[in-house]
């Protein structure tokens, strides 16, 4: 995906607003409105289960698959206080939040994903994220990209729905999508160049409990320097991560590394299951697509269990835990087979087996 710099034409002309609807004459706006509509849940889906989204790679999954399993064991596994880091019982999380397959459900109820990204130079990242979402279990996966990228991404897989509607410089477009996703309580997973965008415009995610940031070591360093005005301190890593989440305003951050460390400003959890020593590019895209789906499932799982709000586990945290574990297991299997030649597509092919090993599908 191209770096989100430059100015997108003023497609979002706020001439009139009424009950969340907007009117404008810009052709670019009309194309982007198609994008926004695709992120919204279908009418039968109740508001509490409206689906997550991602910027940089920007995802919007929705899921309406209830589970009758109580969430008590998840809560017990992840109860924590202060800034102590607790190892997540990640397999238990995956088993709890993954919805059972049900013949009565229709297309879209297990998740609809929208990936915003992709230009002439970068077509792999949005593809990896979108196809990973399908491999995890989402029903539909859309990619919104520039015209130059569309044909290339379409050629990768007929499973993806590709929309060539973005302008070459679309930072303003993505910024507005994030604002509208926030207004609609759509969880937003921000990765890649989306992190560059929000680092320079923190207002896009400040105070948004539905935002998930997934920075790597360099992206995390820039966030810490921007928000906390200091360097990364490994000796107080948990406290610093917690403070970073709090300063931004309750977002969930997954700091990727040897162990993925996750905080929402209240708790700190890590997933340290060993994955692969092969660090090929594209694994972060797999993670983003997986987290988007699992966050959707986790949100619906929590909302479908009638528990007091104060006792509920943050579904953003659960989605991060599940996505992290699945990627690590798939990477381990791929490396076992391909060793040094392991690439991202090899890992994607093991997502299904990895999930099946943890949570077998019922026939």
Main sheet summary: 7 strands, mixed
Q: Mean pLDDT, nearest integer?
A: 82
Structure summary, number of beta strands? 12
Structure class? alpha/beta
Strand order of the largest sheet: 3-8-9-10-11-12-4
Which architecture does the CATH hierarchy give at level 2? Answer: 3-Layer(aba) Sandwich
Q: Predict the CATH topology.
A: UDP-N-acetylmuramoyl-L-alanine:D-glutamate ligase
Order of helices and strands: EEHEHEHEHEHEHEHEHHEEEHHHH
CATH class descriptor name: Alpha Beta
- Estimate nothing, just give the exact number of structural domains: 1
Contiguous uncertain segments of 5+ residues: 1-26, 42-82
Catalytic activity: (6S)-NADHX + ATP = ADP + phosphate + NADH + H(+); (6S)-NADPHX + ATP = ADP + phosphate + NADPH + H(+)
Cofactor: Mg(2+)
Family: Belongs to the NnrD/CARKD family.
EC number: 4.2.1.93
Can you describe what's shown?
With 363 residues, the chain is an alpha/beta fold. It has a single domain, classed as UDP-N-acetylmuramoyl-L-alanine:D-glutamate ligase, CATH 3.40.1190. Helix content is 42%, strand content 13%. The chain is built from 13 helices and twelve strands. The protein has helices spanning 27-39, 72-78, 90-97, 124-136, 147-156, 171-183, 193-199, 217-227, 237-248, 283-304, 315-338, 344-348, 351-358, and strands at residues 17-18, 21-22, 53-55, 85-87, 112-116, 140-146, 161-166, 188-190, 211-213, 252-255, 260-263, 268-271. It has a seven-stranded mixed beta sheet, sandwiched between helices. A three-stranded parallel beta sheet has the order 5-6-7, sandwiched between helices. A two-stranded antiparallel sheet has the order 1-2. β10 (252-255) and β11 form a beta hairpin. α4 (124-136) packs parallel to α10 (283-304) and α11 packs across α13. The protein starts with 16 loop residues before the first strand and ends in a 5-residue tail after the last helix.
